[in-house]
Design brief:
The structure is a single chain. This protein folds into 3 domains: 63 residues, lambda repressor-like DNA-binding domains (434 Repressor (Amino-terminal Domain), Orthogonal Bundle); 251 residues, Arc Repressor Mutant, subunit A, CATH 1.10.10.2910; 30 residues, no CATH class. The chain starts with a helix and ends with a helix. The chain has 17 helices and 4 strands. A 4-stranded mixed beta sheet has the order 1-3-4-2, sandwiched between helices. The longest helix has 23 residues. By secondary structure, it is an alpha+beta fold.
Length: 355
């Protein structure tokens, strides 16, 4: 048990056996023996390794073992295998804590994910995806207004959203998998909010469109179209821009981004896909984007990032209902007990107010 967890934690930390051995005061060969179950570390070495790997020592003895199934990365071509390995190790650790938390409840207060009823059984054209997205919104009672918190929408319907900080240079474009039958979508904490939201909606598209797309439709393009339609419904963008336009002001695209949390470039694509503007107008505006360097970084402050509080909320709820003790709560949140005690009593918030 310790060997497998040590290997995973070392991968998540991006440390070689030699690097970890130096920090733990043992040889790289001894680290190898620990990982292969040929030797057991002493308590002193275990504490040093825990510190080097930024995990609590209880991590190595956690009885629950889970597996990510159906892992699908949406990654850039220059994303290294080492980074992907670190991401997967971090996701496994977070998903494992989620599952351990779920197991303490007689009935976990998060529903199992299910595909909305009465969605079209087939999608034959890209244009069909606009009606498909509207029906998903209707099934979830979202209306056609901007969605202020997309993570909350997905989590409340049984989709596990995990945010990883491993991807320091923002080189991967998302991960989808499942844990114990629960869909998992992984985002990077280093992305701006509009990219996070597009990835969430794109991966939702993969979940909902499975088995429905006509063979001649490219799945990635279809999920991109669904993501835009889900975040910015056709009726909404037509209300904002009008039915037909020969040209758009870039400021209009900026306002759409601020209101709907969809990048200016995606809003531009959306306007052309819906034939609000002709294709040559889209091309002319993309030349403006390229000239100003907006293809890589759009003007203005980055759109606010999405966050998830559900796991923390459920840990405190379980603590309040007596399902777990303070030590287990601290372990699940990855905090030392003394620090958790201060956080629980809001002492750190009081200190910040008084500074």
């Amino acid at each position: 048990m310790i060997g497998e967890r040590l290997k995973r934690a070392r991968a998540a930390a991006g440390l070689s056996m030699q690097d970890l051995g130096l920090q733990a005061g043992v040889s790289a060969n001894m680290i190898k023996k620990y990982e292969h179950g040929e030797s057991m570390p002493s308590s002193g070495v275990l504490i040093k390794m825990s510190k080097a790997l930024s995990v609590r020592s209880e991590y190595f003895f956690r009885p629950l073992k889970i597996e990510l199934k159906g892992v699908e990365y949406r990654k850039r071509s220059n994303t290294s295998a080492a980074i992907l390995k670190r991401i997967e190790a971090d996701v496994l650790d977070q998903a494992e804590r989620w599952q351990e938390l779920a197991n303490v409840w007689p009935e976990f207060p998060v529903p199992q994910f299910s595909v909305p009823q009465k969605l079209p059984v087939s999608v034959d054209t890209f244009d069909d995806l606009d009606d498909f997205a509207d029906q998903v919104r209707a099934s979830w009672n979202l209306g056609l207004n901007p969605i202020p918190d997309l993570i909350d929408v997905l989590e409340s319907r049984g989709i596990l959203v995990i945010i990883t900080s491993v991807d320091e240079h923002a080189k991967f474009d998302g991960l989808q998998a499942s844990v114990a039958g629960t869909p998992v979508i992984v985002l990077s904490s280093n992305w701006p909010g509009d990219r996070q939201r597009f990835t969430l909606a794109h991966e939702l598209g993969h979940l909902l469109l499975e088995g429905r797309l006509a063979d001649h439709l490219d799945e990635e393009k279809a999920c991109n179209r669904f993501a835009c339609a889900f975040l910015l419904p056709a009726s909404s963008i037509r209300q904002q821009l009008g039915e037909k336009r020969h040209m758009l002001e870039v400021r209009e695209l900026f306002f759409l981004k601020v209101e709907y949390g969809l990048s200016m470039q995606a809003c531009l694509y959306r306007a052309a896909d819906l034939k609000i503007i002709p294709e040559n107008t889209r091309q002319r505006l993309f030349m403006v984007f390229s000239k100003n360097g907006w293809r890589k970084q759009e003007p203005g402050e980055p759109y606010r990032q999405e966050t998830t509080l559900l796991f923390q909320q459920l840990v405190y709820r379980a603590l309040g209902e007596g399902l777990i003790g303070e030590s287990k709560a601290a372990e699940l949140l990855g905090l030392p007990v003394f620090q958790f005690h201060r956080v629980r009593k809001l002492e750190s918030l009081n200190a910040a107010v008084n500074q």
